[in-house]
Specification:
Blueprint lengths: L1 H7 L5 E4 L3 H13 L3 E5 L11 H12 L3 E10 H6 L7 H18 L2 E7 L2 H10 L6 E3 L6 H10 L2 E4 L9 H9 L5 E3 L21 H11 L4 H15 L4
Parallel strand pairs: 1-2, 2-3, 3-4, 4-5, 5-6, 6-7
């Protein structure tokens, strides 16, 4: 079982993320089934056109649950608008959905977990003029260094996944090196973004140690020191301290 393999690998706590109404409900059910698993609930930006009144009501109930620690993943995704416009919510629909999710996070005092793909300028604009949630966390951070610097200056948290280990992503490693303690998390984005040397295989939490090793190396830390910092940030970001 995935959770048992994660425990064996030394992972003590995990957040499982929903990206539509059904998957958010499943994430919350998993969080209730396992004491070391928490949930994030939202509608993914590519499915922003699914955010109807019943879905909003369901998400309100899910996010109010103490086992839900974040509103996410929400955000903007321009990549799929370009590549699969027939099946992807428009950018206008995505912005409307994001603003609703921001309000949801503010009202419930939960962290806002952001998905961003090729929409840096619009995302920063919206976050700048919207009400400020408890914490803004940029999930699977993959943007240029200048975006990382702007986000860190605003106090956002950057969460790095296995793609930070890819040879071509030197700029992403520089961003991980610049993030202060307290503004950095480490994640899997499973089943995607499998770290080297397992790239191409299905990702899962048990493999996250390779991502920790890469980030610790560029930050000139031991893995143990980095893990201690991340655990402290995890508690603060998800309101578990």
């Amino acid at each position: 079982m995935l959770v048992n393999r994660a425990r064996t690998a030394g992972i003590s706590r995990m957040v499982t993320v929903g990206d539509d109404r059904r998957e958010s409900a499943a994430a919350l059910a998993t969080a209730h089934a396992f004491p070391d698993v928490y949930a994030a609930c939202a509608i993914h930006p590519v499915r922003a056109n699914e955010l109807d009144a019943p879905t909003k009501a369901a998400l309100e109930e899910m996010v109010a649950d103490p086992r839900c620690v974040a509103v996410g993943e929400t955000g903007l995704d321009a990549y799929w608008v370009q590549h699969e416009p027939e099946t992807t919510a428009t950018m206008a629909q995505q912005e409307e959905s994001l603003r609703w999710h921001i309000d949801l996070a503010v009202r419930h005092g939960k962290t806002l977990m952001i998905h961003n793909r090729e929409a840096d300028a619009d995302l920063l604009r919206i976050l700048a003029d919207a009400p400020a949630p408890h914490t803004v966390m940029l999930h699977c951070f993959s943007s240029p260094l200048k975006v990382a610097e702007e986000a860190l200056e605003r106090g956002y948290v950057l969460s790095f996944a296995g793609n930070v280990t890819f040879k071509r992503n030197a700029e992403l490693r520089r961003a991980a090196a610049k993030a202060p303690a307290g503004q950095l998390l480490v994640e899997t984005d499973a089943p995607y973004m499998t770290p080297e040397p397992f790239r191409g295989q299905r990702n899962e939490p048990a493999l996250i140690g390779h991502t920790y090793e890469c980030i610790a190396r560029v930050r000139h830390q031991t893995v143990q020191a980095l893990a201690a910092e991340v655990n402290e940030t995890f508690d603060r970001v998800y309101g578990l301290g």
